[in-house]
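anyone seen this seq b4? input:
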Amino acid sequence: MPLYWIIFYTLILVGCDNNLIEVEDNDIVFMIRSNTLDLSKANFFIKNKETDLITFYAVKDSFGVNYYKDKEGVIKKVVLTPNTYKDDLLQFQTDASKPAFLDSMLLKNVDCNEFLSILPDIFERDQKSRTSGLDIKQHDSLNQIKIIPFLEKCGIPSPQKTSFKGMLAIFLTIQHSDKEIISYYYPMFECATMERKMSKSILAFMQDRLMVHNNKDQIYGTQKAAIGKFEILNKENVNKRRAEMGMKPIKLDNL
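predicted toks r here
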């Protein structure tokens, strides 16, 4: 084949690949949870080398996975890459299940107009249990049973409709839950930050909590251990990561 034809076909292939868009994590979580992730038209790559679907599934748990779609939303390319903490966080979300207690609740009876009125009491209960020697786990569970049905039906309200304490009550209720609940509702909070309902810093707290709960190094240094300390991933870069989330720097000597 003449050299100019090789160059021509190469440009076509590169051009087609450049038209693909990486799929957002939230979209991947939704597709996996709803069982609508369709890879039937995708090409698979491991470290830039083309592979097949069987090999891909055999080794994917040891790698991070990036998905790319065309302008019609069809996933055309899947690439395995070296695993990072972002891949861990995505895995936590896709593995999480809806809280079991929701199965026995009739969400149709939830009145979104009542959501805002319960938030002050939720906030006070959360804080009081941590300062008055009360049963923290019991009070946290009660808050979850109160808040989560509203989140399921109504979503996160805008800050204009409630107070700072109200928004904090929603965040603290999920943050003080177990890792399964935090993982399941993390995408909702990520969307809330994208819509400017909440600050990006809450995601830093949630990510660190998830990492610590899963016996991994935290990312932003937000979690304090009662005894000892929780290690931080690449500690020398922690303040750079904090700045990206709108957070103040911390002294590395104290970590």
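Strands lie at 21-22, 43-46, 49-51, 64-69, 75-81. The chain has ten helices and five strands. kinda curious what u guys think
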